Amino acid sequence: MDLVRELEPLLLAAVRVTVFLVLAPPFAHRAVPAAVKAILGVGLAFALAPPLAAPNLSTAGFIGQLVSEAVIGGGLGILVAVVFAAVQTAGRLIDNLGGFEMGMAFDPMSMTSGGQFTQLYALAATVLLFASDGYQLVIGGLARSFDALPLGATLDLPALAGSLTGAVGQMMVAALQVAGPLIAVLFLADVGLGLLTRVAPALNAFALGFPLKILITLVLGTFALVALPRVVAGLAQDALGGIAGVAG
Fold it and tell me: Where are the membrane-spanning stretches (predicted)?
């Protein structure tokens, strides 16, 4: 019984951490094997379990608490995923206006469909999270959630809903910060082509404009990658604040 009582905090913490890692970037990427996520979840639970304490639960109570910890980990993971979806959204906006959406393909790594810039920006954000140690902020926020939501606590669903609403707004703002200048240039290019068609209909400006827009997107879209490190660092801070808002 003493061994079982000592294992209860470890198992409960492992469920919360593992579910979080399955849903939250950058660990949610399919390039990270499921076995690695499970091992990392148990390893982090070992690091967190010693200061944690769980009540002596019955079998039914323990199963119910496992479900509650899975809900907490899933809620926090979804919140982080929504925040970091800004980079992929920026890439999708560029694909739509630049004409790359017609070359949309299925990415088996992220299990999403998108154009070339959608996949490029998403992969770049994942690499930057590991290269800049942004993932440590995400894990640190998860670790601090055990202080505000100790084992046996329940997630405040209204607070989670409010944080998700704010995260969606932050996601759109960040996406426009990345793709906004290029969107403006592509819009002006469309306006210019439209005026050219009115002035000289025989030129068939829109037929000429399709490769022109692709060239503009390739050139300026590459420069937009320069802003990604700063954006990803800001998103990591936003994700940390979102976790603190829900767990606080």
Answer: 7-28, 34-54, 66-87, 120-143, 182-200, 212-232
